[in-house]
Design goal:
This protein is an alpha+beta fold. The protein is 51% helix and 8% strand. The chain folds into three domains: 126 residues, Serine Threonine Protein Phosphatase 5, Tetratricopeptide repeat (Alpha Horseshoe), CATH 1.25.40.10; 155 residues, Beta Complex (Beta-clip-like); 110 residues, Serine Threonine Protein Phosphatase 5, Tetratricopeptide repeat. The chain contains 18 helices and nine strands. The chain has a four-stranded mixed β-sheet, with no helix packed on it. Strands 3-8-7 form a three-stranded antiparallel β-sheet, with helices on one face. A two-stranded antiparallel sheet has the order 4-5. Helix 6 runs antiparallel to helix 7 and helix 14 packs antiparallel against helix 15.
Length: 447
């Protein structure tokens, strides 16, 4: 919960006023509501909600907010505003006697006589109902906001949709069958922050439109103690990209069926399918990268996820029925990776690569095998086994193209190695060792 000294508070208030002045009353109401929920003792925010509810013809809520403002505000100028707004709401609700009482209180607290005179004429012209009842506003603000402004941008070509994910808040679901390598999302960061100092993070949020700021405020914040905007950024920010709204709605799995990556040339975040994904299936990415996910036990992954994102992972690799076998596989993968640089025997090294990639597949993790394949290609180049070098370089390129996109720098670099495996620029150790042939060491065919 932000405190009153958090610079985010004044920024949100200014954005609420900006939205109101642009007649974007739903966004203004959402922002005023956010402020009042986070600082319920401040009557100014209820005053803002009251006038915005009047514009949205939410008469009952406008009256309630004005009443709350009267309870909390001490300054006569604020009391005058609250009485006048409640007077208008009561008039629309046919509570004419209550409206007249508020109009008198408006004048008593220093309200402008001319304004009161105009309102008095409206009250006289309002027909009295035989049964004066107060109508309830049944649509809550969050629903009103989400119905008016979709959580995801409307894109008829989108292959996913953002919706409720059964106890995990929102999530992304495939709206058509996807195959490994399919591009799921391409999104420009909403808050692109290169320097993540608190000042620059706050500045990034300050530059947003009121609507986009409201959308960012709907994101989970696992670190409210460090400041509102910094907390949202640290919970949802992507490496290199910053806050990317739709991408932040994809939930985590330690055995993901998709991966996210930043495409530097286009300055966009991408999510690409790691596996085939059925229509209606939830799309998962891993919030952990590289060896932090495929070579770490459940306890370490959970500790990292809990401390950074505030949740305990219950994915298929972490559930109680499977995690012990998964831990054994992933810890062995980690040991293989750490031992590769120290292996002198080329055959042993390549067999270890095959073992690591096999374990990754058995554990349902279909990313990052290219890292092992790059090392395998380099070893084969060192022993002048160009057929095997090409085999591993091709495996690395095809996997990087599928996981990052063929135009991604990772894939382009692998393509250069595949095109010129004997180049010392690509393989500095090419041909340095006695020739060896390792064509009998290959991955199982189903890979």
């Amino acid at each position: 919960m932000p405190n009153r000294l958090d610079p985010a508070i004044e920024i949100i208030k200014a954005k609420a006023d900006e939205a109101f002045n642009k007649n974007d009353f739903v966004v203004a109401l959402f922002l005023h509501t956010f402020l009042s929920n986070n600082d319920p003792g401040n009557g100014i925010y209820h005053l803002g909600r009251s006038v915005t509810n009047l514009r949205l013809q939410r008469w009952s809520d406008a009256a309630k907010d004005a009443t709350k403002a009267l309870e909390l505000c001490e300054a006569k100028v604020h009391k005058a505003k609250a009485h006048f707004r409640r007077c208008q709401a009561r008039r629309e609700l046919n509570d004419i006697s209550g409206a007249n009482e508020d109009l008198e209180a408006f004048l008593f607290n220093g309200g402008a006589p001319k304004t009161a005179s105009v309102e008095a004429q409206k009250l006289k012209a309002t027909p009295r109902s035989a049964n004066e009842t107060v109508l309830e506003d049944i649509t809550d603000v969050a629903t009103l906001f989400s119905n008016t402004l979709d959580l995801a941008d409307n894109n008829p070509d989108a292959v996913y949709e953002i919706r409720s994910a059964s106890g995990k808040g929102l999530g992304a679901f495939a709206v058509k069958r996807l195959q490994r390598g399919d591009l799921i999302l391409t999104e420009t960061p909403m808050v692109p922050v290169d320097d993540t100092t608190p000042y620059n993070v706050v500045t990034g949020f300050k530059q947003l439109s009121p609507k986009n700021l409201a959308r960012c405020l709907l994101l989970h914040n696992a670190h409210p103690e460090i400041g509102l905007f910094e907390g949202i950024y640290n919970t949802n920010g992507f490496a290199q990209a910053g806050v990317v709204l739709d991408a932040s709605r994809f939930n985590h799995s330690c055995s993901p069926n998709a991966r996210y990556t930043y495409h530097e040339p286009s300055k966009q975040e991408r999510i690409i399918a790691l596996t085939d994904i059925a229509e209606g299936e939830q799309i998962y990415v891993s919030y952990l990268q590289g060896r932090n996910v495929y070579a770490s036990p459940r306890s370490k992954r959970r500790q990292t996820l809990s401390s950074r994102y505030g949740f305990c992972c219950q994915c298929t690799a972490c559930d109680d029925a499977n995690f012990e076998e998964s831990d054994c596989r992933r810890q062995e993968i980690g040991m293989i990776w750490e031992s590769l640089p120290m292996m002198i025997d080329g055959r042993k090294m390549l067999m270890s690569v095959v073992r690591a990639i096999t374990l990754m597949r058995e554990d349902g993790y279909l990313g990052d095998a290219d890292d092992f394949a790059v090392d395998a290609a380099a070893v084969c180049a060192g022993y002048s086994d160009w057929e095997s070098c090409e085999y591993w370089a091709k495996f690395a390129y095809e996997n990087r193209a599928a996981e990052f996109g063929a135009d991604h720098p990772h894939a382009e670099h692998s393509r250069q190695i595949l095109d010129k495996p004997q180049s010392r620029e690509n393989h500095p150790q090419a041909g340095l060792f006695p020739r060896r042939i390792y064509k009998d060491i290959r991955l199982p065919r189903e890979m």
